[in-house]
Amino acid sequence: MADEENETTEQTTDEPTAAEETPVSEDAAEPTEAAAEEPAAEEAAAEPEAEAAPAAEAPPEAEPPAQSGPKRKRKRLPRAQRPQKTRPTRERATARKPISREEKPEHERGQRQERRGVVVSDAMDKTIVVKVDAVRSHPRYKKVIRRSIKFHAHDEQNSAHVGDVVRIVETRPLSKTKHWRLAEIVEVAK
Questions:
Q1: DSSP helix/strand/coil, 108
Q2: What pTM value is reported for the model?
C-alpha cells in the first residue's frame, strides 16, 4: 500500500515537469526576436542624428549631459559680468518747498522718577548715600523678594543725616555716580 501511494505522488510530480518541458511554439518566439531587433535599429539610426545636432547647435561652452553624480557647481561671474539689478527711478520734483522752521513748543520736562529710602552715609561733602528697598513678588513662584539698591544723591546744605527717611528725585548727571538729588527729608532719625 505504501508503494502505491509513492507511485501516485511520483506521477503527480512528473506531470507538471512534463508540462514545463514542452517547447514554446516557434511563432511566439519570432515576434520577440523581431521586436528586439527593431529598437536596436532605431537606436543606431538616432545616434548619428543626436551626435550631429549638438555639435552644430551647442556653443563650445555647453555643459556635458547630466551624469548620475553630484551636480557641478557653476563658477561665479566677475562683478562686471553679473546681471545688474534695476532700481525704480524716482520722479524729480518740479518745484521745491520752502524750508520753514517752526518755533519749538515750550513744554515741561518729562516725569522724573522719585524714590524713598533711608540715608546710610553722609560722610561725603554735599553727598548722601540712600538705600532704597524694593519688595516684589516673584512672577512665577510668588515668593516675596527683598532687594535694596544704593543711590548717591546731592545734598546741597548737608541737612540729611544717617537714619533719616528721605525722598530723592532723578536729575541730570552731577558726577560719575550722582544722578539723584535730595528733594525732602520725610522723617528725621531719632
A1: coil
A2: 0.43
